[in-house]
């Protein structure tokens, strides 16, 4: 079977690095790598290989999140919990005031 019509695409190192960075950001937002690959028009396996190569090229110490980022994550998680409690209270208050009072 011939592969006529298919061209071999070559990507620059900058493009690969940008794609890997986008995957990392989207994973934090809850999207899958497959979604990102599809959006970029890439094969998921190729994107996996680029991530693996980038991980091997980056020293482990450079990947560790800084203390300020960890502190911000903790602060944001507390804020999310507070907002959830406020939302739940508002729901209950709305239900209480919406019921028929004779």
SSE layout and pairing:
Layout: H1 13-28, H2 33-40, H3 44-57, H4 60-63, H5 67-98
Helix pairs in contact: 1-2, 1-3
GO molecular function, one term: transposase activity
InterPro entries: Homeodomain-like_sf, RD_transcriptional_regulator, Transposase_8
Keywords: Coiled coil
Description of the molecule:
The chain is mainly alpha-helical and 102 residues long. It has two domains: 54 residues, Arc Repressor Mutant, subunit A (Orthogonal Bundle); 38 residues. Helices cover 73% and strands 0% of the residues. The chain contains five helices and no strands. Helix 1 packs across helix 2 and helix 1 packs across helix 3. The chain is elongated. It starts with 12 loop residues before the first helix and ends with a helix. The mean pLDDT is 87. It comes from Gemmatimonas aurantiaca. InterPro entries: Homeodomain-like_sf (IPR009057), RD_transcriptional_regulator (IPR051839), Transposase_8 (IPR002514). Pfam families: HTH_Tnp_1. GO terms for molecular function: DNA binding; transposase activity. One of its GO terms (biological process) is DNA transposition.
């Amino acid at each position: 079977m011939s592969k006529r019509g298919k061209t071999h695409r070559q990507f620059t190192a900058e493009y690969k690095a940008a794609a890997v960075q986008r995957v990392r950001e989207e994973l934090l937002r809850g999207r899958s790598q497959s979604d990102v690959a599809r959006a970029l028009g890439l094969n998921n396996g190729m994107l996996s290989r680029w991530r693996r190569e980038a991980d091997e090229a980056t020293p482990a110490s450079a990947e560790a999140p800084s203390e300020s980022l960890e502190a911000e994550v903790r602060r944001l998680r507390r804020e999310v919990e507070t907002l959830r409690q406020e939302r739940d209270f508002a729901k209950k208050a709305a239900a209480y005031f919406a019921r028929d009072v004779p």
